[in-house]
Write a structure and sequence with these properties.
The chain is α+β, with helices and mostly antiparallel strands and about 350 residues long. Helices cover about 20% and strands about 30% of the residues. It starts with 9 loop residues before the first strand and ends with a strand.
């Protein structure tokens, strides 16, 4: 299959200019550079920023909102999905159509077994055109993939090429017994694992099988709203913030699974370095100073929740569990909601609602 048939003549790369703008890789300007980028094993290709708010093709700053997956993660996901001829597949996030074409090869070109759904109308039209031009004929739908697609259900495989922070109920309900759900999975605290679930008796259960840093499904994006209570409380930190927040992505992602509705960001440098945490509602906030963290005014808390205490508690629970790698952590989604577990579903670490 020719990957180039699914790539536009110009897209944004990861290199930036002195103004922080992402540079365009244009086939008409430098075809060799374009082709090297297209076939780069480890880099995705950025084809949309800011939900397509502007069609400008020059150097740009902005939020990446659609890409063509890098070759390595595209094939890793196919390996985990174990597609076989005759499987009925639901693909969330058509975009350029590249992943849909790979899936079509797995189930059989022209079999009618693949349904691919894209939320963005412009991307949906472009992806469907690319697929037809390359000889693929899946059921291509413009719609909200979070809702699945009941018309061609039930499915043996559900795969998303955008990240979620909870498993949409329709994906489970539209799956056959024995079906596999494979999706990039984020928390508000950190992204992003690759979650593989097996469906049995209306219960989906499994664990993270690797890393996968993908853009959000649009309805699962963080809102970044902050409206903390006016009153504050101050205190000391029981632990050096570097122990909790300075140990790398794998630890961050594991802690996020314990505390999925909390976000954080850093600001300042040196003696003025701080971390700010906030919950999904934005009404509870904590600000922690790294310098002299043991002092009784190092931590400032707003709102009902003490988010720093909660994060330190999650860190302590993770340490007591033996600092398990995130691939030892799993999720079960049943009628009661989502449950985080360690090593097997009987060892539940956290149970909560299913907000999306």
């Amino acid at each position: 299959m020719d990957r180039e048939a699914f790539v536009p003549d110009a897209f944004w790369g990861y290199d930036t200019d002195d103004r922080g703008r992402h540079m365009v890789i244009d086939r008409a300007v430098d075809e060799d550079a374009w082709r090297r980028a297209v076939w780069n094993t480890h880099r995705s290709l950025i084809v949309q920023m800011d939900d397509g708010a502007t069609a400008e093709q020059g150097p740009r700053k902005g939020d990446f909102t659609s890409s063509i997956s890098a070759l390595d993660i595209a094939f890793e996901k196919l390996n985990h999905l174990s597609v076989e001829p005759g499987h009925r597949i639901l693909h969330i996030g058509t975009a350029s159509g590249y992943d849909s074409a790979l899936l079509s090869e797995g189930v059989g070109i022209g079999s009618g077994s693949l349904t691919t759904v894209e939320f963005d109308p412009v991307l949906a039209a472009g992806g469907a055109k690319n697929l037809r031009g390359a000889g693929y004929t899946p059921t291509a739908v413009c719609g909200d993939g979070v809702e699945g697609w009941a018309a061609t259900a039930p499915y043996d495989r559900v795969i998303s090429t955008a990240a979620v922070r909870s498993i949409p109920r329709p994906w489970r309900e539209q799956s056959n017994d024995g079906a596999v759900i494979l999706t990039p999975f984020n928390t508000l605290y950190a992204r992003g694992g690759l979650l593989k679930l097996r469906v049995q008796g209306r219960v989906a259960s499994g664990r993270c099988v690797g890393g996968a840093c993908y853009m959000w499904v649009r309805s699962h994006r963080p809102t970044h709203r902050l409206a903390p209570a006016a009153d504050s409380r101050k205190g000391a930190s029981p632990i050096d913030p570097e122990e909790v927040l300075g140990r790398g992505w794998a630890q961050d992602f594991a802690l996020g699974l314990y505390l999925p509705d909390v976000s954080f960001s850093h600001r300042g440098e040196g003696e003025s370095k701080q971390v700010q945490l906030w919950d999904e509602t934005g009404t509870s906030v904590a600000i922690v100073n790294y310098d002299e963290w043991w002092r009784d005014r190092a931590v400032t808390v707003y709102g009902e929740r003490n988010l720093w205490d909660e994060l330190v508690g999650a860190y302590g629970a993770w340490r007591l569990a033996g600092q398990p790698h995130y691939t030892r952590l799993g999720l079960t989604y049943d009628e009661a909601g989502e449950h985080l577990w360690l090593d097997h579903p009987g060892e539940v670490l956290r149970s909560g609602g299913q907000p999306h």
